[in-house]
Hints:
Blueprint: H1 2-29, H2 34-41, E1 43-48, E2 51-52, E3 56-58, E4 64-65, H3 67-78, E5 83-88, H4 94-100, E6 105-111, H5 114-117, E7 121-122, E8 127-136, E9 152-156, H6 160-168, E10 173-177, H7 180-188, E11 194-198, H8 199-209, E12 213-229, H9 234-249, H10 252-260, H11 266-271
Parallel strand pairs: 1-5, 1-6, 9-10, 9-11
Antiparallel strand pairs: 2-3, 3-4, 6-12, 7-12, 8-11, 8-12
Amino acid sequence: MSHIRRPFKVAFSLVAVVVSGVLVACSSGSSGDVLQQVRDNGTLRVALTQANPPWNFLDASGQPVGYDVDVAREVARRIGVDNVEFVASNFQSFIEGVRAGRFDIVISGQTVTDERKQQVDFSTPYQVNGVSIFTASSTNSIDSLEDLRGKVIAVSAGTTQEKFASEEVPDAQVKTYQNATLGLTDLGRGNADAMLVSRFQGSYLAKQNGLHVKPVGPLLESEVNAMSFRKGSAEFKKEIDKAIAEMIEDGSLTKISRKWLGGLDMVEELKELQPEQS
């Protein structure tokens, strides 16, 4: 009988090793609160597009700069983390990257939606973004959402504007770009009829790059932007929310926004939010 029992014991041992290995891998890769992990590592890994001025972009030396970058550094300091590692990503990959642990947090103007809240957790808002229609400077036939029916509409890939154009504009031909600069440039060249983008960002990019585009009509919507991170990190969320609240209260967020957003005080914009949006 011993020649039967021995393989069984070996097989059982192998199963036990495999199972324990899986449990260790799972516990090291995805369990536990993000706050303790970033404090233990001494580094906060922050995802942003690095191509979304003035919110975040690369300067002449290739270093990330902008509103989101300064906010990220200040948040890291306030939660007790000395170093910030900026990870280049995009709106299509933010949620997947957070869930896979490729970065700890997204600070890149990510709009809060019910669909996204099913997959990641969000901080309290740290910015508000008004979305507008942009057209070529020579275009006079588009003034409203109704005028976009059947038109070629440029959007940044993976953004809420892409979903909005697909669902709210009948017969729209939605054309995606990796970032707003590319979309607005193509719009100015006549390769799209309009683009849906932040009014502030679109105007900023047009001025900085000499693009022949303009905002038209009223704001389509005001989007609430927050920081996203892995679900189940209650302590991390608590500390991030506390840091944002302190930055609002002591004037730090006002200082950062005025530096990067042409004098705009983001705190005043946040005060306009309805209670359910906050």
